[in-house]
What we know:
Layout: H1 10-55, H2 59-66, E1 72-75, E2 80-83, H3 88-96, E3 98-102, E4 110-111, E5 114-115, E6 125-129, E7 134-139, H4 143-149, H5 153-156, E8 161-164, E9 174-178, E10 180-185, E11 188-193, E12 195-199
Parallel strand pairs: 8-12
Antiparallel strand pairs: 1-2, 3-5, 3-6, 4-11, 6-7, 7-10, 9-12, 10-11
Helix pairs in contact: 1-2, 1-3
Amino acid sequence: MFGSKDYITPEQAEELMAPLVERIDRMEQQIRTLQQEISSLRLVTAVTAATKEASGSTQEISKQVIEPEQLLVGINMDQADAFAPQGAMAGREAQRRSTVYLQAPSGDGLFTLFSEQEQIGKSIYLLTSADGLNGTFILIDSHDAIATAMISVSQFVKPVCKVIGNTRQLPRHIVTEEEGVARKDAGGWRVTRKAVVRFE
C-alpha cells in the first residue's frame, strides 16, 4: 500500500476530473444552443405552413406540418427539457418574442452589457421580451453563470435580485422563484422589479 503508484490523492483526482467537467459543461451549452435552433426551425416551419394555408395553396401539406403533435426532447445533464408542439398562432407570437443574455448589472440595477448569444463566464441572466421594450429576467441556472454570479453576490446579484438561502457557499442550483421585470431605456435594461432567487 505504501509507495503504490496507483494511489491518487483527492487533489489529483480533482485535477484529472477538471477537463471532463469542462467538457460536459461545453456539451450542455451546445445542447442548449441546438435546442434553441430546433425550436426556431419548428416555428419557421409552422409560420410558413400557416401562410400557405391562408393563401389557399398546398393545404394538405400545411396540415401535415402543423397537425402532428410530436414532442422534441432535449437532454440536459440537470433536467430533461421538452418543447411543446407549436401551432401557427404560437409561431407568430414566438417570432415577436426575443431573448437576450445579460451580464452583471450596475449597482442601481441597470444592465448595460447584453448579447443574443450566451457568453460563458460573462452571461448571468436571461431576459425575455415580447415587445423589445418590456421584459422579464431570470438568473441562469448553469455552472458557469452560478460561478460568475458567486464572484460577488453583493455586486452581481443583489442589485437586481432578492436572495433566499445561504450566499456564503457555492450553490449547486439557483432557482428563480419570481421573475424580475426590466424596461429598456437609453442606457440598457433597467430593473423595475427585482427577481426572487433561491440558492440551493
